[in-house]
Amino acid sequence: MKNVWLQENKWEDVEDYLKKKTTIIIPFGSVEQHAQHLPLGTDAFLSQQIAVDVAKETNTLIAPPVWVGWAPHHMAYKGTITLKPETLTSIVQDMCESLIYHGFEKIILINGHREANLPPIKIGMTKVRNKTGAFLAIADPFYINAEKGKELSEVEEGGIGHAEELEASQMYHLFPDLCEPSKSAKNIPKNNHRFMQHDPHVIGDKMITVSDVATYKDATKGIGIMGDATLATKEKGKKYHEALIANISEFINYCEENIEVELRNQEIPI
Ligand SMILES: [Zn+2]
């Protein structure tokens, strides 16, 4: 393919592509506050850049990106846009079913918004999987790049959350003109009960609790950060990003070789 983005090709290019390969990537992001040092589009910018780099590495097509996601707690800060979760679930279903109708069999979603986007995306994917038999997978940096993230991170326990070290490092590496490192801040939540730890790098017994606008603003100190961005560097971001691209590329190549799909119910979403 000359162009990795589906929308930059012509329909005949897609027809030719499908004769050789039936995998496609869809980047999912969010437009939500990222404190004072990162732009609102951070999650979307990152998922799209990851998609482009993986696409070039593996010769895979990318569907148009989904810019916005499910981010109700971030409405505590100006500029955030949130979908209703059922809207996001429907977007997943309608995009995937359109692609499957044309013969795409394997769909790799790249989620830039971490855990908040996962429930509605997984519901949509599960419906599509059961209906069509297509193979669907989510590459979320917290999971597919967990080892490298842990290795690179220098923050204390509780330091990985939102707009923090790893996310900021990756942004400083990829989109320096949109960032203001001098405004980075630190806010390590001081949870007083051992079950209240949210940092994915901390192994331990945990509860899953949900946020609301009022308490999230308070918990993020009126700045919008959860964690420590003061330790973020371009160098860390480069290493983190390169490992992420290598991991997702390896997974796509693995799927090409090993995952068999037989499509059924290839229907137009209507
Ligand atoms: Zn983010």
TrEMBL record:
UniProt KW keywords: Hydrolase, Metal-binding, Zinc
Protein name: Creatininase family protein
Keyword Metal-binding: yes
Domain of life: Bacteria
Family matches, as Pfam families: Creatininase (PF02633)
Cofactors demanded by this protein: Zn(2+)
Family, as annotated: Belongs to the creatininase superfamily.
Entry keyword annotation includes Zinc: yes
InterPro entries: Creatininase-like_sf, Creatininase/forma_Hydrolase
